[in-house]
Amino acid sequence: MEDKYKVALKEMEKIKERLGISEEPTNKDWVEIKDKCKTLDMPGDNVSGVLIDVEKGEYNNKNYSIEISPTNIVTLFGTTVLDRKMKQVLVGEIVRITYLGEKEGKKGKYKDFKVEVKK
């Protein structure tokens, strides 16, 4: 009795033969999927574009999808401060988020952001 792997390989060979595929795909046949998550690490780093989606993230924070161009959509992970400021931004608005650096608060350090919307 043949195992499932050998059966699958035989089926794949039959499909290749039927479609006229005689060789394995080359690197030019593949397109790399890159990570579209954006991090703002240095004070002054920013991202701007159209806010297209807000999703619930881990740890009760939000994930913000921002369309920089029709072919470039990034996701920015929220923080307590960013989430509070982004509550005032509506999906569809043009937004610019700038990282201001770490600040000292009552409960310790936190990441601060400037959030702007285009008029």
How would you describe the overall organization of this protein?
It is a single chain. The chain has helices spanning 4-19, 80-86, and strands at residues 37-38, 46-56, 62-69, 72-77, 94-105, 108-117. By secondary structure, it is an alpha+beta fold. The protein has one domain (32-117): Beta Barrel (OB fold (Dihydrolipoamide Acetyltransferase, E2P)), CATH 2.40.50. The chain has a six-stranded mixed sheet. Strand 2 (46-56) and strand 3 (62-69) form a beta hairpin. The chain is elongated, with a radius of gyration of 23 Å.
Contiguous uncertain segments of 5+ residues: none
Total individual domains: 1
> On the 0-100 scale, what is the average pLDDT?
85
- Strand count: 6
Reported for the largest beta sheet, the result is:
6 strands, mixed
The level 1 CATH classification is Mainly Beta
Backbone shape: elongated
Radius of gyration equals 23 Å
Q: Biggest sheet, strands in spatial order?
A: 1-4-3-2-5-6
**Number of H/I helices:** 2
User: What is the helix/strand order?
Assistant: HEEEEHEE
- CATH T-level fold name: OB fold (Dihydrolipoamide Acetyltransferase, E2P)
Separation of the first and last Cα atoms:
70 Å
Beta-strand fraction estimate: 35-45%
CATH architecture: Beta Barrel
- Helix share of residues? 10-25%
Question: SS-based structural class?
Answer: alpha+beta
